[in-house]
């Protein structure tokens, strides 16, 4: 029983990181109707930048995350400005954009490998403190810190979307870009904003993944699992993304311990296919079928 | 007719090549080029004709390769039986995707990507059958009856024959009523439904056909290499093939083959480039989607049109 609860804490903590990445995927999809297949690699860049800042510059974790947010937000904005928008201007559909962002993802990954090398880079211990004991349950405080940071980020996002004028404008564009444009909300700006925010979320998630495991050029696969989490929850729905992320984190943690770690990587993708088969609208319910 | 003659010419030139090149590595390279050209033709048909973006095409390639390799290597099944069986098994794999096919484009792209990853995990973890991470090491030479295709040049001719056959089949399909229905479906799904086309059946058929062709290419690939391992069918392989299709263009076979050749040549022969191979691939892919989404093939078409109108102009002047 103790192990069960302990694992739940780990699962929720990992799941909250998945949820952060999934939120980025879903936010872009909700606002622009596009699948950004480079999002998980922006997350990877965030993790590697976090490594450099913590390890070489010795910055505190909060500053590290802020710097990573700025850089990854800029990268994501550049992807929207110089690739996605251009493909759209040339009359490319959503599939062209999937392919274009795949190209960007390959470029980012190979550049990261050239810059940071091919080996996993473990973060310096951010918070060196004794394991917390609550009754019989022993928890590494690292996981609680990670959970706290991701929950705080989600809260900030929520406040931004619900309480600020920009957030309102973005939601309006997401609901109906044409009508929003009629009332003076420039859709292209909102698209750019959605990409930038998703880049920022990816940066936070990247640093957190680095704290959880390590940073490396191929950590983007973790972000891909988060994409499946977004679809499982209902692609384009923000509560769905959080729900899907948590579900994936918890299932994966229990699956590794109680079943086998062999299929840990496949689990997320099997879940994706099964969900698309049974309930393509996801847990929360977004229209996915066409034929 | 004006498409048959260049095609026959190309086949003639390629069948002369081994005479001059002997059994060297270049013939081996050309054989693998034929195999990837087969794979790319299938994906091109899927994307260009049916408008379906699959990000897991290499998984069918892998199913065919493993099936043929294991059947001939472990169970001593003759190659001529293993080849169609691996095509069929890959086709069955394609049929597995059928329930997902009714999803909207982007969802199908994601699902096919996930499918590719799951298939690769099966290759890696079904150790008793596939040999796990190290792969299945002992695939024998292909043989036709008692005649073993034991040199690169012999397999070269077999691959060339299959590739030509496949090109004929796909260009026939393109102008058959099936291909025309796919065209309508790609351009306007609602319109296609309104004239009574069964979109689900069309999509399932096109997936199965292209999977069969990928499986047959995979079978050849296994016998060319003499071994199979999961890394060969990693999802990045699907993206490599996709890059060939995007660079070559979705509508033109000459463009596709030149793109396939150039991309494979770059990764195989420019050693100083090897560190940057994936970077170059990514840059090429992105540049083409952004600036020339119709691929090299579209350039060929425009050039030919220009040349034709120029010669017509000459005629008129006379």
Side-by-side strand order of the widest sheet of chain A: 1-2
How far do the termini of chain A sit from each other?
47 Å
Morphology of chain B: globular
Structural class of chain A: mainly alpha
Instruction: From the alpha carbons, calculate the radius of gyration of chain A and give it in angstroms.
Output: 19 Å
Put simply, the count of helices of chain B is 14
Major sheet of chain B, described briefly? 2 strands, antiparallel
Number of strands of chain B: 2
Order of helices and strands of chain A: HHHHEEHHHHHHH
Which parts of chain A are unreliable, with pLDDT below 50 for 5 consecutive residues or more?
none
Give the strand tally of chain A: 2
- Secondary structure category of chain B: mainly alpha
Roughly what percent helix of chain A?
over 70%
Quaternary structure type:
heterodimer
Q: How many H/I helices of chain A?
A: 11
The overall average pLDDT of chain B, rounded, is 86
Unreliable stretches of chain B (pLDDT < 50, length at least 5) are none
Strand content of chain A: under 5%
Mean pLDDT of chain A: 87
Written account of the structure:
With 291 residues, chain A is mainly alpha-helical. In chain A, 75% of the residues lie in helices and 2% in strands. Chain A has a two-stranded antiparallel ribbon. The mean pLDDT of chain A is 87. In chain B, helix 2 packs antiparallel against helix 10 and helix 11 (235-248) packs parallel to helix 14. Chain B is mainly alpha-helical and 318 residues long. In chain B, strands 1-2 form a two-stranded antiparallel ribbon. Helix content of chain B is 76%, strand content 2%. The chains are: A mainly alpha (291), B mainly alpha (318). Chains A and B meet through helix 3, helix 4, helix 9 and helix 11 of A and helix 5, helix 10, helix 11 and helix 13 of B.
């Amino acid at each position: 029983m103790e192990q069960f609860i302990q694992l739940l804490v780990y699962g929720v903590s990992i799941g909250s990181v998945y949820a952060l990445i999934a939120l980025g995927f879903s936010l872009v999809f909700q606002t622009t109707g596009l699948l950004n297949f480079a999002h998980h690699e922006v997350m990877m860049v965030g993790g590697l930048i976090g490594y450099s800042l913590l390890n070489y510059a010795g910055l505190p974790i909060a500053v590290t995350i802020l710097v990573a947010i700025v850089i990854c937000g800029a990268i994501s904005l550049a992807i929207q400005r110089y690739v996605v928008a251009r493909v759209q201007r040339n009359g490319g559909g959503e599939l062209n954009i999937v392919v274009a962002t795949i190209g960007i993802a390959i470029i980012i990954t190979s550049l990261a490998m050239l810059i940071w090398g091919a080996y996993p880079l473990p973060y310096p211990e951010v918070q060196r403190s004794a394991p917390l004991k609550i009754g019989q349950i022993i928890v590494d405080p690292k996981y609680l810190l990670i959970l706290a940071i991701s929950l705080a980020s989600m809260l900030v996002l929520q406040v931004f979307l619900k309480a600020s004028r920009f957030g309102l404008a973005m939601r309006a564009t997401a609901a109906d870009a044409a009508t929003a444009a009629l009332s003076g909300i420039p859709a292209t700006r909102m698209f750019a904003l959605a990409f930038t925010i998703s880049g920022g979320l990816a940066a936070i998630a990247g640093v957190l993944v680095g704290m959880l495991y390590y940073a490396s050029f191929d950590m983007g696969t973790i972000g891909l699992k988060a994409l499946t989490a977004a679809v499982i929850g209902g692609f384009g729905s923000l509560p769905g993304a959080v729900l899907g992320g948590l579900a994936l984190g918890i299932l994966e943690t229990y699956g590794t311990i109680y079943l086998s770690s062999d299929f840990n990587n496949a689990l997320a993708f099997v879940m994706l296919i099964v969900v698309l088969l049974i309930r393509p609208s996801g847990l929360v319910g977004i229209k996915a079928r066409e034929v | 007719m004006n498409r048959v003659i260049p095609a026959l010419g190309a086949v003639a030139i390629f069948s002369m090549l081994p005479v001059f090149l002997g059994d060297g590595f270049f013939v081996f390279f050309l054989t693998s080029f034929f195999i990837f050209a087969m794979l790319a033709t299938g994906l091109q048909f899927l994307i260009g004709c049916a408008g379906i973006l699959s990000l897991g095409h290499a998984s069918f390639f892998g199913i065919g390769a493993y099936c043929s390799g294991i059947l001939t290597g472990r169970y001593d099944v003759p190659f001529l039986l293993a080849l169609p069986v691996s095509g069929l098994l890959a086709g069955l794999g394609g049929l597995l995707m059928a329930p997902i096919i009714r999803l909207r484009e982007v969802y199908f792209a994601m699902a096919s990507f996930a499918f590719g990853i799951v298939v690769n995990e099966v290759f890696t973890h079904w150790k008793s059958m596939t040999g796990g991470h190290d792969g299945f090491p002992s695939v024998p030479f292909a043989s036709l009856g008692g005649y073993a295709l034991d040199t690169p040049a012999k397999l070269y001719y077999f691959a060339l024959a299959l590739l030509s056959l496949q090109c004929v089949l796909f260009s026939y399909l393109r102008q058959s009523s099936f291909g025309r229905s796919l065209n309508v479906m790609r351009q306007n799904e609602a319109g296609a439904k309104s004239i009574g086309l069964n979109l689900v059946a069309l999509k399932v058929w096109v997936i199965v056909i292209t999977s069969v062709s990928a499986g047959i290419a995979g079978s050849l690939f296994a016998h060319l290499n003499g071994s199979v391992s999961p890394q060969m069918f990693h999802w990045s392989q699907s993206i490599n093939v996709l890059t060939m299709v995007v660079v070559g263009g979705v509508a033109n076979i000459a463009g596709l083959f030149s793109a396939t050749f150039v991309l494979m040549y770059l990764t195989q022969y420019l050693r100083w480039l090897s560190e940057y191979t994936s970077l170059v691939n990514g840059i090429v892919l992105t540049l083409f989607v952004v600036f020339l989404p119709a691929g090299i093939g579209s350039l060929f078409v425009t050039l030919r049109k220009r040349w034709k109108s120029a010669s017509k102009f000459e005629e008129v002047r006379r």
